[in-house]
Amino acid sequence: MKTCSVTYLLELDESSTDVHRHATRRSSISSSSSSSLPSSAGSLDAIDTVDEDLDRHDQSRATGYRGKNSEVAWMQRLEAESRGFAHDDRSAANMSHHQLPQGDSIADVSYHLDDLNIDDSTVSDEFLLPEKPLADRLLQVYLDKVHPSLPVIRQDLFLEQYRQVFSSSDVNPGKRWLSLLNMVFTIGCRLDSLYRYDHVGHADETIFFHRARRLSTSDDLIYNHDDLQKVQFLTLMAFYFLTESQISRSWKMIGLAARAGIALGLNFRETHDKFDKASHEARVRLWWSIFYLEHLLSAITGRVSCLGDGSCSVSLPLPFDITANESQDNDLSWERSLSTFEVGWTEQSEQIDERPAWVKALPFSGSLYFHYLVDLAIITHKITNQVYNADLVNRGWKLIEDRINFYNRKLGQWLANLPHSLVFDGHHVDMSSSQISLALHYYSACIVINRPCLTRPETHKPTGIRFPRSRFGKDTAKECLRASLALLEFVPDQLDPDWANTVAPSWALLHFMMQATVVLLFCLSIGLASGNLGERDASENSASAAGKPESSDSVLAAAKKALRWLYVLGETEESSRRGFQFCHRCFRRIAEKRGLDTSGLPYQERPSSEQNEGRYRPHLVKAPESGKAVPRAQQPHSGRETYANESQSNLQDPNAGHLERVGDSSFEGVQERHTSPTGEHDSVSLFDPDFYMADFISWPEESDIEGLLLSMMNSNP
């Protein structure tokens, strides 16, 4: 995959001293007429290679390969750039595209927590359930925070089954459904910092996680054939690891989920009428949840996606809630709706103006937000597959230019066609979490598509002559810088960790911020600001340039803002602390070399997490050989946005009043209840993902005797 730090290539004509404006791929990296600086080692002309033994120790194995579209790979090059290696022509001339100074391995600069192991605690009884007030709270957090962006479960059916489980101790939902429920609790607990701050010791997300894991392993989830609940479980497991910054584990889990979904045909359009409309749409949304996570994790890791172009024909998710529209009189037929929403709507230029007017007129809902989030993910997925394709470099730079221009237009069309309720601008005040999420995803995509030209200008090795950039190279580099500045505009100037966990998509916020921060630091390092793309342009470096959005002052101010945010987030998250330490270190080096103002920044790096024991709790631990625990912190969370007709009363019984959000005092002395253990016949869950199962609930006398005995034995200390 070729998606980061790219040198704009120039070919020197052997018969003259003229520099060709049309870049072509050099026939050989080693015999190139221009030097390859460490900062340019991610260029599209370079073949993807592995410059280190990734199997040499636990840390390198945990981090694994990080491709050129990963911000971690950008960080690796920025580290070398900030140390001054890129300014030493003799060193640069002796270094290949992928050679780095000793110690600058991918694992050394990664801010993710892949090197930490998950606590391997065991649970005595995986069939225990929390008291209903706690369960209600954790489920509500999940539905408020996660479900709008990842509708993995069919909400109405899951809630009905949930009520059945808690209404009677005799209900036997099956192991797979219980494992799914425990993953929902795990994620809810992870994101519900209010509960976690005030009630550490009463319950822990690791308890729910280990119950889910034990239920899934006892059911041979990996080895048995695939079903929908297995796909849902693996997807939620991948999402949980993502929230933990366990990127490699998350990437593996979403790969399993994608293959299981493909095995069930979720990626293809269904033409039969065996399912009702709600069941059909639930499958569609499950698939696009997998697609979104797979794409996001491929972007974070820089690894090739397992979902290539043309891998699915399933329609886009409907931009409205099915239940709400079925209960209203309207002129929409389901057949017309399902056949109209083609895959890659915005990506296909001939369809961009065919989006019905009623789509843009729809009121805000979680479904409308998810529809446009998926549409954007499809475009960005196309960018990584079509622009940074390993074979594309053999077809010439002109084709790369054309594709960059094409997908920049697609991103602009997507933005122009947003409905009014989802339109975002540079003012984050009073914007909904959905608008903020779309804005961050959009500008992240703009960074990726324009990142190839953001490099130090090419230099002719023998003479040291620096080649001027092409107009395309200048414009594209500026767009990358502007996208980074715009992304940070949607982050408040006031440092508010609560905003990061209630309004922003917390599972991807650090990824987005690191992308933008590394770009800004690289711009400061190479002197890229308004009118200065590595060569002096008197007409653009006038005094008026200071007022431009991408001026030196603006870039410096935005970089400081990003560093302050990373510092604050690092108080409660180990991965953010690592990200701050890296960026802060690079900024100090760059500032010293460039004479930049460093006021307004912390002068010391974030203290180690061991110095903050009062705010951290042990959860992720070092590899067994070190024996040293590295705690992970709690995140603040409280919901700020609810979705009409979708989550405001998710847990409300039709015959009862609205469920109150449980206060802190309700969790003192948490007690748990026990569900009926399941027997061997429950390898296929008794709670079907498509149909209400009131007539198929299994009672204790139907359970396998051996399963009951084993459960009783396991419950003993």
TrEMBL record:
* Biased segments, Basic and acidic residues type: 670-683
Q: Does the keyword Nucleus apply?
A: yes
**Region Disordered: start-end pairs:** 15-44, 598-662, 667-686
This protein's UniProt keywords: Nucleus
Q: Where is the composition biased (Polar residues)?
A: 644-653
Instruction: List all Low complexity biased stretches.
Output: 27-43
Xylanolytic transcriptional activator regulatory domain segment(s): 250-323
| Any Gene Ontology biological process | DNA-templated transcription
Which Gene Ontology MF annotations are present?
DNA binding; zinc ion binding
Which protein is depicted? Xylanolytic transcriptional activator regulatory domain-containing protein
